[in-house]
């Protein structure tokens, strides 16, 4: 079961590894403006506002999460092929909206499947999830190397085998029985969502993803403007994910030594430093390498804490909806807003200005977390 659970993470994040570092360069090569690039990149996050809630609700109601993961994987792959029609800006926007609506159904549902399969052994989540990081690194390096020899316009063709891997791995999962859950007590979900610590948690993660808008949308363009080639860009993306893997491997030790509050505050501060370094010192390679190593905390540590935070606060009864809210309100709304804001900053000023904006968002997240964030009562390493 370990390899079955790890397999889909590998292929899902391999697609991200081929898409995120190079899609903005592909769009730039197609002649789109910075604001158009920001809008198209934002769709990857935008559909997370709606899609996880829709699919999470269906998963909670039917219990058929494995079947829904398969449906999302196949449908997303089919709709992505609309890219090959070269539909222009508005047509491509529609293609990406539909494709990501189905594709963004996969991960939130799969997180629930994984954690429920692990049961009381939730500390093993990091070792399973790290295979997603391995897939990301492999795709970044392979696609980056190929694009040194091929025009960037070939990128959609290079992604097709990864879509096939996602679909095949989804069908390797064992089917669920599909038992319906009993109706939830009225008001229970509302009581959880309106808890002050949960509100602070969502606000922190929302701002975290706003700050990542410049990174996911313009980091590759920012590096290219400073003279880095496509392979070097891919290796720098890979370095960040390698650091993330290292973090996942030792997260269980860190979480026994430090409280949730300490991990979150430390990670937010280091994320703010990371954006400042990228904004001002990109040309200094040792500093840029250090900034990429900080991806271990800006994504790895905060995501590992957040997934278990959602499970502990929302419980089994509302876990699917809690995971959907986490994905939709933070990665979705926060990521889309961050992408758009970074587009305006890049169009009006520079790519460096977008990263400075990300640092400002982290400063605000630090204040909110300092005042309002508390550990959930059932988190295994809460203090």
What does this structure look like?
There is one protein chain. This protein has 383 residues and is mainly α. It is 79% helix and 0% strand. The protein contains 17 helices and no strands. The chain has helices at residues 2-29, 34-46, 51-62, 65-80, 88-103, 106-118, 125-147, 155-170, 188-193, 196-211, 213-225, 230-257, 260-280, 285-293, 295-314, 319-348, 351-372. The longest helix is centred in the C-terminal third of the chain and has 30 residues, at 319-348. The two termini are 32 Å apart.
Q: Which H/E pattern describes the elements?
A: HHHHHHHHHHHHHHHHH
In this structure, how is the largest beta sheet organized? none
Category by helix and strand content: mainly alpha
Helix content: over 70%
Whole-number average pLDDT?
80
- CA-based gyration radius: 20 Å
Portion in strands = under 5%
Give the number of DSSP strands.
0
Mind telling me which CATH architecture this is? Answer: Up-down Bundle
Give the termini distance in whole angstroms. 32 Å
Relevant CATH superfamily: MFS general substrate transporter like domains
What's the number of structural domains?
1
The CATH class: Mainly Alpha
What form results from the Cα inertia axes?
globular
Counted by DSSP, the helix tally is 17
Poorly predicted regions are: 182-187, 378-383
Subcellular location: Cell inner membrane
Keywords: Cell inner membrane, Cell membrane, Membrane, Transmembrane, Transmembrane helix, Transport
Domain Major facilitator superfamily (MFS) profile: 137-383
Membrane topology: Multi-pass membrane protein
């Amino acid at each position: 079961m370990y390899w079955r659970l790890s397999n889909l993470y590998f292929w899902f994040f391999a697609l991200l590894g081929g898409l995120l570092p190079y899609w903005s360069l592909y769009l730039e090569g197609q002649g789109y403006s910075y604001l158009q690039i920001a809008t198209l990149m934002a769709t990857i996050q935008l559909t997370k506002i709606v899609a996880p809630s829709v699919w999470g609700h269906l998963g909670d109601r039917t219990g058929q999460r494995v079947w829904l993961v398969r449906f999302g994987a196949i449908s997303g792959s089919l709709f992505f092929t609309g890219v090959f029609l070269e539909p222009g800006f508005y047509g491509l926007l529609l293609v990406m909206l539909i494709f990501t609506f189905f594709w963004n159904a996969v991960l939130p549902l799969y997180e629930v499947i994984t954690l429920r399969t692990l049961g009381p052994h939730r500390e093993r989540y990091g070792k399973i999830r790290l295979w997603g990081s391995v897939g990301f690194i492999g795709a970044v390096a392979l696609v980056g190397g190929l694009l040194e020899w091929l025009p960037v316009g070939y990128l959609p063709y290079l992604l097709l085998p990864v879509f096939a891997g996602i679909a095949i791995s989804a069908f390797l999962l064992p089917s669920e029985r599909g038992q319906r859950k009993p109706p939830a007590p009225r008001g229970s979900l509302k009581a959880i969502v309106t808890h002050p610590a949960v509100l602070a948690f969502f606000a922190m993660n929302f701002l975290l993803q706003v700050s990542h808008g410049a990174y996911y949308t313009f980091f590759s363009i920012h590096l290219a403007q400073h003279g880095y080639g496509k392979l070097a860009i891919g290796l720098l993306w890979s370095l960040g994910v390698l650091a993330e893997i290292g973090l996942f491997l030792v997260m269980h030790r860190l979480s026994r030594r430090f409280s949730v509050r300490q991990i979150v505050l430390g990670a937010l501060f280091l994320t703010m430093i990371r954006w400042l370094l990228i904004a001002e010192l990109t040309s200094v390679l040792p500093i840029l390498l250090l900034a990429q190593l900080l991806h271990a905390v800006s994504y790895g540590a905060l995501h590992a804490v957040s997934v278990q935070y959602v499970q502990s606060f929302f419980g089994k009864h509302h876990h699917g909806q809690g995971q959907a809210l986490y994905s939709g309100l933070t990665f979705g709304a926060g990521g889309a807003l961050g992408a758009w804001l970074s587009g305006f900053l890049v169009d009006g000023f520079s790519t460096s200005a977008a990263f400075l904006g990300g640092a400002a968002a982290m400063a605000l997240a630090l204040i909110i977390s300092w005042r309002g964030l508390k550990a959930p009562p059932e988190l295994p390493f809460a203090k």
